[in-house]
Specification:
Layout (H helix, E strand, L loop, with lengths): L10 H12 L2 H11 L2 E2 H11 L8 H13 L3 E5 L9 E5 L1 H24 L19
Helix pairs in contact: 2-5
């Protein structure tokens, strides 16, 4: 879910951004777990905080993603200590998950470069003109 916190009429842009991000949920979760093991709601908060609150992945979507990634052997789960309240299920990335993350990042870089080329984002914009697809501040 992408929330529009701006006053301009950008809801169409937000929907497009959400659609683009939705296809990368697995890679986003794998990226969060590359740093360290984490429990479900903490991953949700880290994604939200990393985007300044502009993007949140619904918890139900995240938990379905965790199950799918575990089934595929890309992450594994274990129960943490009960030292801070209830017992939490933690997730960690596997070596297979790291390999998939690297492949997905390479594919993303290639896709981004191709889209930038197709949209002429690699060219300098004229004076006062923002590059296509980019907003002026």
């Amino acid at each position: 879910m992408v929330e529009n916190t701006r006053d301009d009429d950008s809801s169409g842009v937000d929907v497009l951004a959400a659609d683009l991000l939705r296809g990368h949920t697995d890679t986003i979760v794998l990226a969060m777990l590359r740093r360290d093991d984490s429990y479900g709601f903490e991953i949700f908060k880290r994604i939200r905080d990393a985007t300044g609150g502009r993007h949140e992945i619904k918890e139900a979507t995240l938990y379905a993603t965790y199950r799918r990634l575990m089934k595929d052997g890309l992450i594994e789960a274990y129960w943490g200590d009960e030292s801070q309240g209830g017992r939490r299920k933690y997730y960690r990335i596997t070596d297979a998950g790291r390999a998939v993350y690297r492949r997905n990042m390479a594919a993303w870089a290639l896709t981004r470069d191709l889209i930038d080329s197709l949209l002429d984002l690699d060219r300098s914009a004229g004076p006062g003109d923002p590059a296509p697809g980019r907003r002026s501040s």
